[in-house]
Structures are given as C-alpha cells and as structure tokens.
Amino acid sequence: EQWVLGFEADWGMTGDIATNEEPTADFAFSMDQIATFRARMGIALDDTLLYATGGVAWAKGDLDGIIAATPDHINGSHWGWSIGGGIEQAMSDHFRLRLEYIYTRFGGDSYVEACCDVDIPDFDDHEFKVGVIWAF
C-alpha cells in the first residue's frame, strides 16, 4: 500500500437548472460553465486507488427570458467548494477506469438588469462520474 497525493482541475457545461414560465416573470437559469480545482489524496492497494477529493468551485450562471426577451443573458459568478471521493482501477499499464462522486455547494448571486432584479440563492450540485483514462 502507498499513499498518493495530487491535484485535479475540471471544466464542464450544464443545461437549464430552473425555469419559471409565468407571463410576468418568465426565466430560465443555467450554469453555462462549471469548474473545480481539487486536491486528491488516497491510498493505492495494488492496482486500485481509493481516494478523497476536495477544493474550490466556480460556476458562470446565465439568466434568460423564455417567453419574452427579458431578461436576456444576465450573467453572474457563483463561488463554492467541492468534496467527494472515488475509486480508480488500473486495467493495464496504460488503461484505467474511474468511478467518482462530487458534491458541490455554490453561493448565491443577484442578477440585476434594468428590467428586473432576481436573487439566485445558494444551491447544490451532485455529480456521479465514470471515467476512462489512457495514460501514455
């Protein structure tokens, strides 16, 4: 058995998270971008790595009108933290499989434009990831 320490960064995109189609207050909220930078610490048991991970997270939110054109692309930044864990299995010298869970907590933000003022409260994100890694 051997202890392993490393760092990992990832970036992704999502679709709509919340929508409201009422005529006087229609909108769709999405995270156009989401990124994390995390430390990863684990224990290697032969060809298997069990690890915990944690660090900072950032998301770029986008608020859009659905029925009317307003609000139209009001952007905001949401900062937060991530924590999780996973298992990585070496299938050969170059090929690995990974299963991971990440919980992220983002802080809220106010989206302000001449037409409206919308407060997005703190929110959570749960991610289950399956990965295939080719090391060269």
Mean pLDDT: 86
Shape, principal axes of CA atoms? elongated
Structural class: mainly beta
Query: SSE string, helix = H, strand = E?
Result: EEEEEEEEE
> Counting H and I runs of at least 4 residues, what is the number of helices?
0
> Which residues sit in consecutive blocks of at least 5 with pLDDT less than 50?
none
Counted beta strands? 9
Beta-strand proportion: over 45%
Estimate the helix proportion, in percent: under 10%
Q: End-to-end distance, in Å?
A: 23 Å
- Largest β-sheet summary: 7 strands, antiparallel
How much is the radius of gyration in Å? Answer: 19 Å
Features:
76% strand; seven-stranded antiparallel β-sheet; mainly beta; two-stranded antiparallel sheet; elongated; 9 strands
Structural notes for this entry:
With 136 residues, the chain is mainly beta. It is 0% helix and 76% strand. The strands form two sheets. Strands 1, 2, 3, 4, 5, 6 and 9 form a seven-stranded antiparallel sheet that branches. The chain has a two-stranded antiparallel ribbon with strand order 7-8. The radius of gyration is 19 Å and the shape is elongated.
Helix-strand layout with pairing:
Layout (H helix, E strand, L loop, with lengths): L1 E11 L3 E5 L6 E19 L2 E17 L9 E17 L4 E12 L2 E5 L2 E5 L2 E12 L2
Antiparallel strand pairs: 1-3, 2-3, 3-4, 4-5, 5-6, 6-9, 7-8
Tell me briefly what this model is.
By secondary structure, this protein is mostly beta strands. The chain has strands spanning 2-12, 16-20, 27-45, 48-64, 74-90, 95-106, 109-113, 116-120, 123-134. 0% of the residues lie in helices and 76% in strands.
